[in-house]
From TrEMBL:
It comes from Posidoniimonas corsicana. The keyword Transmembrane helix applies. InterPro entries: HGSNAT_cat. The chain crosses the membrane at residues 20-41, 53-70, 90-109, 129-149, 156-177, 189-207, 219-237, 320-341, 348-368, 383-400. This is Heparan-alpha-glucosaminide N-acetyltransferase catalytic domain-containing protein.
Length: 412
């Protein structure tokens, strides 16, 4: 914990972007558990909703700040001390994560725990409960640490290599394992760091762009790369159309495709027939923020019309299409803050408060969320849901603001 504002000059766009991301997280985390919540504000695991854009922005911001702060640390302390300190900090964040994401009671009696054994006791939490936002940030940062100071080419090569490992692992076993319901993984599960590296490394590249000499504005290049990344993510997601059910009256046999990464010969043949008959548009996936076909207006039943597969945009699975698109989207959102804050000097107080003390805001919001929802049933009417959300955000802001006024910033 620090009791003083960092001495180095802060980058306004980063604080404002991070503050927006924290505020958006509050919104979707609170509203998502209510029946009245709009589907765009929920996580669905089968397409990229607004809710799914939030976590990649955290990883993007971490990558940006990582590149900035680590360079400063090396300049002041030297490389060996800087690397050692970073490893200690990230391992400390893992420890904090294990406390924040409590696994709950694993056994009611000593006999149950003894029979369960050590691996069975930790298997479930290791797959899901413990691997949430803070853990993914820590593990992904450790994974990226060896190349965070490397040149652009090395970092891009590392990104591509990480993505390739994830694709191979998903084909071999991982996609089925993380989605098998025993339990399901969260945010990509234990191997999620392989694709969470995508938005994090893009964040380091964004820092390189804005750290150019004064007078060189990277607006055009950042906008171009943002568009290219989003287009690439969408192009990858079109692979999901191989897994369409034959027809609405012949639903997919199972929720998970038998070959979720490499389509079967029959699926490839069907796609070729569509091309030959001029039905090329039927090979295009729905754009981001648009759910896949689903019966009875229930997005949760979309697997009946299209089996779950690696190429759909899925935060739960940490799929490559999702991470690439979300990295580009994160860059686009950051660019808005870069223009407004760094070029025009705009500031929004609430975003500054949340952005400068994001870890404290994250920890506090979980406690406030639990307290407010004690008085809010899941079927609450929309007006009551939004009222509760306002109370939740307001109380959390007051707590974080009080820390700010006292110069208290929660850091590791």
């Amino acid at each position: 914990m620090s009791t003083d504002e960092p001495a180095q000059k802060r980058i306004a766009s980063l604080d404002q972007f991070r503050g927006y991301t924290v505020l958006a997280m509050f919104l979707v985390n609170f509203l998502g558990s209510f029946e009245a919540c709009h589907w765009l504000l929920r996580h669905h695991n089968v397409f990229c909703s607004f809710a799914d854009t939030i976590m990649p922005q955290f990883l993007f911001a971490v990558g940006f700040a990582f590149r900035l702060s680590f360079e400063r640390r090396i300049e002041s302390r030297g490389a060996p001390a800087a690397y050692a300190r970073m490893v200690r900090r990230l391992l400390g964040l893992v420890l904090v994560s294990l406390v924040v994401y409590s696994a709950g009671s694993r056994a009611e009696t000593w006999d149950q725990l003894s029979t369960m054994g050590a691996w069975e006791a930790v298997r479930g939490p290791l797959k899901s409960t413990w691997f949430q936002t803070l853990t993914h940030i820590a593990v992904t940062s450790l994974w990226v640490l060896p190349v965070v100071r490397a040149g652009v080419g090395w970092r891009i090569a590392f990104l591509l290599g990480s993505a390739a490992i994830h694709v191979v692992a998903s084909h071999a076993f991982y996609f089925h394992w993380v989605n098998n319901g025993a339990p399901n993984g969260i945010d990509g599960g234990p191997l999620g760091f392989l694709t969470w590296a995508v938005p994090m490394i893009v964040g380091t590249l964004a820092y390189d762009a804005v750290a150019q000499p004064e007078g060189r504005r990277p607006l055009a290049s950042m906008l171009l790369w943002s568009a290219l990344l989003m287009a690439a993510g969408y192009a990858l997601s079109c692979g999901t159309r191989f897994y369409d059910a034959p027809s609405a009256t012949q639903p997919a046999a199972t929720k998970l495709a038998s070959q979720p990464v490499i389509p079967t010969p029959a699926q490839v043949a069907t796609a070729r027939e569509k091309v030959a008959s001029g039905q090329v548009l039927q090979l295009l996936a729905e754009p981001p923020f648009v759910p896949p076909p689903h019966p009875d207006g229930d997005i949760g039943k979309s697997h009946q019309l299209r089996a779950w597969n690696y190429w759909m945009m899925s935060q739960r699975s940490g799929t490559l299409s999702y991470q690439v698109f979300a990295a580009g989207f994160s860059l686009a959102v950051f660019l808005l803050f870069y223009v407004g804050c760094d070029l025009y000097g705009w500031r929004i107080g609430v975003l500054s408060t949340f952005g400068a003390n994001a870890l404290a805001a994250y920890v506090l919001h979980m406690m406030v969320d639990h307290s407010v929802k004690s008085f809010m049933p899941r079927d609450a009417p929309e007006w009551y849901m939004w009222g509760g959300c306002a109370v939740f955000i307001g109380v959390t802001y007051l707590l974080v603001r009080s820390l700010e006024l006292r110069g208290i910033y929660l850091k590791l």
